[in-house]
Amino acid sequence: MFARTERLLLRPGWREDAPALAQAIGDEAIVRNLARAPWPYRETDAEAFLSGWTDGHPSRFLMVRRTASAPRLIGGIGIDRRENGEVELGYWVARSYWGLGYATEAGRHMLDLARTLGIPRLTAAHFVDNPASGAVLRKLGFRPTGRRIERASLGRGTPAPTVEYVREVAAPGQDRDDDDGPVAMLGAARWPDRLREEWRLAAA
């Protein structure tokens, strides 16, 4: 599955994306705000991450900026089920693209996807010292639960407090609570070789 938004293509990750992924995410300011990414982040880490990511994964995407020249990997976004059964939204954006609304744009797609998959409720969290992520979540309709939870971060080395958010997801066909139309979503069991070549990445 992949999706087109106004400025982005959201698509599965491929093994050949490893160099661009390592370059885009290999920034301590990014990794310290992620729970599972190692630091320093090397190309071998990107290869290991991508090796477990099959074509057609329904809920995890690379954010690829649509440009007149080579596509640019600018981040990642996904929804994953945690051990406690909650479904959590997570994302990251390369530093060069902070503050430009890409996480919000991709996040709207994830809300549409959650509706399509019948997921009634999404959670999210950000580290206390990363308020910009909270601003994105509030734009997407998430609300703080009032709970602060210590979470691990390999980039920080020790657990740190996070702010927890939650959002109820409308069932398919119910009214949306934002003003943007749905993004285009297309299912694909396997990307045709022509498309894979067209969307081969340049690093951010």
Detail the topology: elements first, then pairings.
Elements: E1 2-4, E2 8-11, H1 18-25, H2 28-31, H3 43-51, E3 60-65, E4 72-81, E5 87-93, H4 102-116, E6 121-127, H5 131-139, E7 143-151, E8 160-168, E9 184-186, H6 193-198
Antiparallel strand pairs: 1-2, 1-9, 2-3, 3-4, 4-5, 6-8, 7-8
Helix pairs in contact: 1-3
Question: Could you characterize the architecture of this molecule?
Answer:
- About 9% of the residues have low confidence.
- The protein starts with a strand and ends in a 6-residue tail after the last helix.
- By secondary structure, the protein is of the alpha+beta class.
- The chain is globular and about 40 Å long.
- The strands form two sheets. The protein has a six-stranded antiparallel beta sheet with strand order 5-4-3-2-1-9, with helices on both faces. Strands 6-8-7 form a three-stranded antiparallel beta sheet, covered by helices on one side.
- 25% of the residues lie in helices and 28% in strands.
- Helix 1 crosses helix 3.
- The protein is built from six helices and nine strands; from the N terminus they run E-E-H-H-H-E-E-E-H-E-H-E-E-E-H.
- The relative contact order is 0.21.
- It has a single domain, classed as Gcn5-related N-acetyltransferase (GNAT) (Aminopeptidase, 3-Layer(aba) Sandwich), CATH 3.40.630.
